[in-house]
Specification:
The structure is a homodimer of 140-residue chains.
Chain A: H1 12-30, H2 37-49, E1 51-53, H3 54-61, H4 65-78, E2 81-85, E3 93-97, H5 99-108, H6 111-116, H7 123-138
Antiparallel strand pairs in A: 1-3, 2-3
The structure holds a DNA duplex (30 and 30 nucleotides).
Chain lengths: 140, 140
DNA sequence: TACAATTAGATTGTATACAACCTAAACTTT
DNA sequence: AAAGTTTAGGTTGTATACAATCTAATTGTA
């Protein structure tokens, strides 16, 4: 059997499995805030940018409108953001953070340090993997 | 703003983004074979094990029955595998590869080397990330 | 040996993901 | 300015993922 078609020799598979598992571990921490993981990273964009087009958010998160549009509608309904078509360019929809959305930031403060405890890597290794993944991500 | 809640300071995010992007790049290579990425890794298990329980496949792939059951039914319909409840332990369902499933192996042979060209890492870096991700995966 | 606890899959419900396609708006080019 | 092209979002359809729950089979135990 072709060794290259063995699961243990894949580079993509551990990437896929680790990503899923870590997202899964975020879930109980995000659940009290009412956020899913994807909504959480969308809120990170909002906390930092306050107002941004769907297009630019998609570029930051590597997500397209097929994923973002329904999710942003849910987040609008939850009261964390508002959506409004831009007046300068009517093709664009601007997403803006609300006061409720800002409040979530305080409640999310404890999450990063809690998650750090879930990752079984020494500090040095975490930095290595961070560096390598960023290099890979920038090549996309 | 809390620096720890910035997207660029997350470890999980590049993991999530890289995994999605690499799976996305597999898609056109797998499409002629009629496989999705998840079906492809399931076939890897089948090519190696020939016959395995749903439970054990789930442990190898980090997937549960909620994902596997519907997918394996599709793969059975496609003719690559067969599903049969075990006679020794009627709780278990054994999945076995068919002749059609074995044929797919030949057609998949070219995929790993094609994918290698999609990853913008030097040989050394690919090994590093492989090692770190496996360490992380084993801690689950 | 009854009976409680565990286990394996299946099912249901919710939430992504993304390709493919559609519409409207903005931009290019002639 | 009219026609063709590109762009931004929205919609549809398909395929995961996974929590929660259910059923049937098996195992552990008093």
């Amino acid at each position: 059997m072709n060794e290259k078609l063995k699961l243990e020799n894949q580079l993509c598979f551990p990437l896929y499995a680790c990503a899923k598992e870590i997202v899964r571990r975020y879930t109980p921490l995000l659940e009290p805030l009412g956020l899913t993981y994807t909504q959480y990273i969308a809120m990170m964009v909002m906390w930092e940018h306050k107002s941004i087009s769907v297009r630019d958010m998609g570029k930051l998160l590597f997500l397209d409108s097929g994923t973002l549009t329904p999710m942003l509608k849910k987040m609008e309904k939850a009261g964390w953001i508002s959506r409004k078509r831009s007046e300068e360019d009517e093709r664009m929809v601007m997403v803006s953070i609300t006061a409720e959305g800002e409040k979530l930031h305080d409640r999310a403060e404890a999450i990063p340090s809690k998650m750090a405890g879930c990752v079984a890597l020494e500090g040095d290794e975490a930095l290595q993997i961070y560096t390598l993944l960023h290099k890979l991500m920038k090549s996309f």
